[in-house]
Design brief:
This protein has one domain (about 10-235): 3-Layer(aba) Sandwich (Rossmann fold). The chain contains eight helices and eight strands; from the N terminus they run H-H-E-H-E-H-E-H-E-H-E-H-H-E-E-E. It has helices at about 10-20, 30-45, 65-70, 85-95, 110-115, 135-145, 160-175, 190-200; strands at about 55-60, 75-80, 100-105, 120-125, 145-155, 205-215, 220, 230-235. Strands 3-2-1-4-5-8-6-7 form an eight-stranded mixed β-sheet. Helix 2 packs parallel to helix 3, helix 5 packs parallel to helix 6 and helix 6 (about 135-145) crosses helix 8 (about 190-200). The protein starts with 9 loop residues before the first helix and ends with a strand. O-methyltransferase that catalyzes the 2 O-methylation steps in the ubiquinone biosynthetic pathway. Belongs to the methyltransferase superfamily. UbiG/COQ3 family. Its EC number is 2.1.1.222, 2.1.1.64.
């Protein structure tokens, strides 16, 4: 099902389509996603047991988080606007045998119109900084969640340290990501995300940072939210 929606950045979509074949190569440009995925899943699982829950994964890419959710027993609807990424996700799904994932080429806003208040868990990780109107995506996420639903967002803070670490360090010095992966102007302060969520009457849960140590090459969750961060919200 292909949807056209104004809240899309075709240059961003082309960027990820060009890399699509490498989504599941743990040594590719997507290595950081493979390495942080256990941290992301651990954070989600501490808030709600995915088993038996209906989950929607917004901006699922090649399905790294979607498959992790399915392995923990969730029924997953995974959506993305990059069809090449979805094709890779579906192929990997055949290898994984995880038939509890439904992949769709549709925007969050369009899905929210079709399936409002249908999901126990809404995840939107490493996606908000890649769209023209992230607030509209947050509103769609809120609409998709059932009353009592749990919502999870992750993105990058906007400040000089985030520019230094997430762009200069990650893309140019350590080569963790392809150059041009991120646009500093699209980074989102936790206060901005919190404001958008308040507009949707969402209640804030935990806010935690995700840091990288270049010496040990390890990621971990800690209180420092100055660069990457994860945010948990609840729909009353």
């Amino acid at each position: 099902m292909t949807q056209t929606h104004t809240n899309r950045d075709d240059a961003e979509i082309r960027k990820f389509e060009a890399l699509a074949a490498r989504w599941w190569d743990p040594n590719s440009e997507f290595r950081p996603l493979h390495e942080i995925n256990p941290l992301r899943m651990g954070f989600i699982s501490r808030k709600i047991n995915p088993a038996g829950q209906k989950c929607v994964d917004i901006g699922c890419g090649g399905g790294i988080l979607s498959e992790a959710l399915a392995r923990q027993g969730a029924q997953v609807t995974a959506i993305d606007l990059a069809e090449a990424s979805l094709s890779v996700a579906r192929l990997h799904q055949l290898e994984s045998g995880l038939d509890s994932i439904r992949y769709e080429n549709i925007s969050a806003e369009a899905l929210a119109e079709q399936e409002p208040e249908q999901y126990d868990i809404v995840t939107c990780l490493e996606m908000l900084e890649h769209v023209p109107d992230p607030e509209a995506v947050v509103a769609a996420c809120a609409r998709l969640a059932k009353p009592g639903g749990q919502l999870f967002f992750s993105t990058i803070n906007r400040n000089p340290k985030a520019w230094l670490f997430a762009i200069v360090g990650a893309e140019y010095v350590l080569n963790l990501l392809p150059r041009g992966t991120h646009d500093y102007a699209k980074f989102i302060k936790p206060s901005e995300l919190a404001n958008w969520c308040r507009h949707q009457q969402l209640e804030q849960g935990e806010l935690i940072g995700m840091t990288y140590n270049p010496l040990t090459r390890k990621y971990k969750l800690e209180a420092d939210v100055t660069v990457n961060y994860l945010a948990h919200y609840i729909k009353p």
